[in-house]
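WARN retry 2 of 3 for item q-0093 after timeout on previous attempt; input resubmitted unchanged.
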Amino acid sequence: MSTANDKPLALVTGGARGIGRAIAERLCEDGFAVTILDREREAGEATAAELSRQGHTVTFEAADLSDHASLGPLIARLPVPTVLVNNAGLFDNRPLFDLEAGDFARMMDVNVTALFLLSQAAARRMQPGGRIVNIASRAFLGAKGHAHYVASKAAVVGLTRAMAMELLPQGIAVNAVAPGAVETEMVARQSPEARAALLALQPTGKLAAPADIANAVAFLASARTDFIYGQVLMVDGGKSLGGGMGL
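OK item q-0093 returned
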């Protein structure tokens, strides 16, 4: 179903900044009307206003993904979406022995439970041809220093595959994109030494741009991509290849 201006609607969580903003912009370029869902009202409204000035159809809705009870009603009052991009999530870098049960619960609440609830609510309304794209992470393969984040992204991958199996008969495709290291505000705040160490691990010698992730999302969100279900597209410059890249 289309929006009032006859454009298909894409919902992008965490669309105010960084990767989410790049996704919103790319989907606009591909002809979607976009609704940005984000807890950062000022940044979300500014992004929506800027993209609207460029001639795109963009709106903003404040959304706190930790408030699970609000998510179903939020999706219900919006126009019927064609695409849902579950991009918003938490990241916390902390050693294993510093983690407590509450750290796991908070990470799972946003990265997994909220993603599930939004996807369930959207899928109830989607027509055949709908698309759900989840942002996982290369970290689902395993990483040091953030076990709770790794566990949450591994859960996103498993949930993506399970949802793909159940929603395929409805004509809804569910897939995931797993970014590696991306040029974001968080990376920009790192020390020169930390950044150099991060770059040294990248086979390409550089980090991904947010647009690289947005391009992968756009591929999976496209109506032309009609025979891909439950897959995880790695966008990490080859780092997940392992030994063959000298890692």
